[in-house]
Amino acid sequence: MSMQRATATMDADVLIVGTGAGGATTAAILAEAGLDVLLVEEGDWVEQGAVVPFSLDQMDRQYRSGGVTVALGMPSIAYTEGCCAGGGTEVNSGLYWRPPGELLARWREQFDISDFDPDDLLAIADEVEADISVSTVPGGHTSPSEVLRRGADALGWRNGEIPRWMKYPPSKLASEPRSAVGERQSMTRTYLPRAMKAGARLALRCRVDRLVTNAGSARSAVTTLGDGSRGEITFRDVFVCGGAIQSPALLQRSGIRGHIGRTLAVHPTVKLAARFADALNVPDDVPVHQVKEFAPHLSFGGSASNPGLVALALLDQWATFKHAITQWRNISVYYAAITSEGRGRVRSLPGLKDPLVTYGLTHRDRELLRSGLGRLALLMLEAGATDVYPSFKGAPVVRNRRDLATMQGAFTAARASVMTVHLCSTVPMGEIEGKCGADSFGRVHGCRNIYVNDASLLPTAPGVNPQASVMAVAIRNARRFLDAGGCRG
Ligand SMILES: Cc1cc2nc3c(=O)[nH]c(=O)nc-3n(C[C@H](O)[C@H](O)[C@H](O)COP(=O)(O)OP(=O)(O)OC[C@H]3O[C@@H](n4cnc5c(N)ncnc54)[C@H](O)[C@@H]3O)c2cc1C
Question: Is 249 in the pocket of ligand 1 (CB under 6 A)?
């Protein structure tokens, strides 16, 4: 593998900024076609197993700003971004949802995306599923996952196991069940090694501060290296794949105007902690079941639940909930996620490294969060929870249906800890220039050789976990770049 130390001057035919779901796939496709590809990544390479999943150590080494980032608003929405080789794919839950066909068709119509055939994208999804070993858990499910199934079944709500990109070691004996502990097939295990095998170079701890642009073209990038020194990279074409917050911020820092950073779309979520009679907590894994009875508007699932994260879920009403932390082994954390009508903005500000991010929920979003939390609490009671602790200021403990009504009455979104891990749509793709930041294949409108190829391009938040949609779109666009004779201009 060709991992190189970032140096003051570097050069490539194609520069790819960022190594997450969009950048790693783009690099593999272009390098395998014989292009000279340089990938740069602001974070470090962290081997799986070197940090405990969901630990503070992981936050420190693999998340941007230690995982403490927020979109300001009423309420503000906490969000997290991966910042390491592999980006978000290294830290995420690995839950795989192929892009829904009807959503792809809607994107094509509403954003006027050319040659955007849902069947083509779903054929790419087939390839991705084989490449990253999308599979279900071979053995039984964990207790926190079973809670979702049990509660939903009792209510007659649609639910199921969501497959993950995971390889499970085979059992040594035919009679033995296969291990339910798998190895996540993130980008450092799949597309990054593939890209490097084909000759792509990867420079770590190298941040692209800005592209040097002139009349819609860029030929070089200004970088900051891990030791704080400055550098320069020259190239013929550049793919910006820094994720839905960093990509628009980089374009703005490079003086690129247009529809960039104005339509951030996320899946806002609210949480609760549920206590059961028996110990069930699994500190280093997440439930694989989701409840989709009210999808795409509303989905329920399980969150990471180590003791620190259980404490965080209880924090909003710590004065009355704090006693529960001693029982963390009997507690697991769950979320209700919505598709939001609201939108946010990403604005880079002179002199500041990080952009200002804002997000506004609509009245309908707030009401959906209220009904979502109420239904999730009901599901927990049906699954046998003895006590439910909703994550908002002034929340009561919910032990029965009467408490549920009290909880619904006390809830306002402004009092809740709203968060998200799905960030999309800041450079939406399509031919409508007033509505789209990039064309149908990711080239930034008004630019000749600057492309975006990550979650920023998804026209809206997809209503399902987005990584598969990001990968399918990125692979399609990278192939189109090759077909159009990319890099020969
Ligand atoms: C905690 C968490 C859980 C999630 N769970 C799931 C899940 O279960 N299923 C699912 O489908 N999705 C999940 N997601 C979302 C999924 O990870 C993202 O949709 C996906 O990773 C987005 O890919 P991307 O290429 O747009 O950006 P990213 O994967 O975020 O990669 C961007 C990379 O670019 C680097 N970068 C940014 N700016 C620069 C710069 N200027 N210079 C150099 N490098 C830069 C960043 O450091 C980062 O490594 C989750 C995300 C998180 C954070």
Answer: no
